């Protein structure tokens, strides 16, 4: 006989709270992203590509192409292809400074790293972010978004000066939910001086045998000092503000 109520029976299990189903397409795209990185690592580790992607080989390759008008485009294309795979771009930065000099090498390295960072970010956002957004609890995502809105911009600027793998920064920002315009602006601010520093280092170290030792040491020390100041400028400014407010 019916009880006349519409509520669930005592034996029925409670409805799940806050559970989100993961779309199959998100899993497939994330699997493709992981497969791309694994294949790239395998090629770099166990094929002749490992020998090609060295500083000496990159310098030799670009030296052979230097007389061609499209040599800078070749360097940019290498950045665009290699960056999303997670392979190191330091040989490209070094070769750019050696082959094209500090001024033009810095410009090409900056444009190349911006292209590579954009491609890496968009690839990770397209293939990986949907799965992350379904796996990570919504409250945690909202908290992360608030942190990124408050600290994310200058955090990206600072890490461009640190010896963190290029792809890790790009993928991390994409999967953490950083907005693409914010990522581009912060990357540009961080990469302008950092590419100048790294390009100069590469150029100076390659020509160390023929350069004036005292001038070289002085310039390298100056560049290193600039890098340290730019890296810690924002944290020191925040610390100074906190102490000032406490005194006030």
Compose a concise summary of this entry.
The chain has one domain (24-247). 77% of the residues lie in helices and 0% in strands. It is built from nine helices and no strands.
Main features:
mainly alpha; 248 residues
Number of helices: 9
Strand and helix order: HHHHHHHHH
Large-scale geometry = globular
Strand content: under 5%
Poorly predicted runs are 9-19
**Estimated radius of gyration:** 24 Å
Number of domains: 1
Helix content: over 70%
Protein architecture, described:
- This protein is mostly helical.
- The protein has one domain (24-247).
- 77% of the residues lie in helices and 0% in strands.
- It is globular.
- The relative contact order is 0.10.
- Residues 9-19 have low confidence and may be disordered.
Secondary structure topology:
Layout: H1 24-46, H2 49-52, H3 55-65, H4 71-82, H5 90-135, H6 138-159, H7 166-176, H8 180-206, H9 213-247
